[in-house]
Amino acid sequence: MARPKPKFYTVWHGRSTGVFATWQECEAQVKGFAGAKYKAFDTYAQARAAFADSPDAHIAAAPGTQTTDAAQMHPTRRPRTDANGLPILPPEVPPNALAVDAACAGNPGPMEYRGVYLATGAEVFRYGPVYGTNNIGEFLAIVHAFALMHRKGINLPVYSDSRIAQGWVRKQHCATKLPHNERTAPLHRLIARAEQWLRTHDTTPYPLLKWNTGEWGEVPADFGRK
Predict the structure, then answer these.
(1) I want to staple 224 with a disulfide (CB 3.0 to 4.6 A). Which of 76, 165, 189, 198 is the partner?
(2) With 0-12 CB in 10 A as exposed, 13-18 as middle and 19+ as buried, what is 79?
(3) C-alpha angle with apex 98: 197 to 134, nearest 5 degrees?
(4) Gyration radius from the chain CA atoms
């Protein structure tokens, strides 16, 4: 059987843009990225020329070509929002609070986390992608929220949908089984910093609360990749 010819992937809108030589590299830029646009080409020259052009000139290509909008290929579930794009919160959840979440493509795999302000849905911090696991991301997101508020002198509740991460935070220890190696060393150093921060700071001003996904829908910090 003949081996498939290699493709080159142009990413116009994604975490990083440009021309990528493998689908895995392209997927890392577009999967779960709202409004991502990309397309596969047979040669690097074609892909590079297309990158200098508008994506609209290529996304509407003839049927049968490998043209894909990430939003169509990876349908997402989004947190509930109103007509103005503001989070729809249950009555028991105060808008003056933060919500955090993490996403990971594989376990382990490219992981990122973020925090949003519930009153507006605005993203207040984001980290990644970095090689890790979802539970690590959930843990680090909570500690990041605590540290950010401590630095700015703000006391707000923090909502997370991860019981595991909340347990790790309360024990001041990230009980991950992610191996220690050259690839994971930077993340393990970040984990150690987070654990040290928890041991040396009072977190009682920042109530850590469970987001009830079953009743309230996705946490507003959700990446929408399920």
Answers:
(1) 76
(2) buried
(3) 65
(4) 20
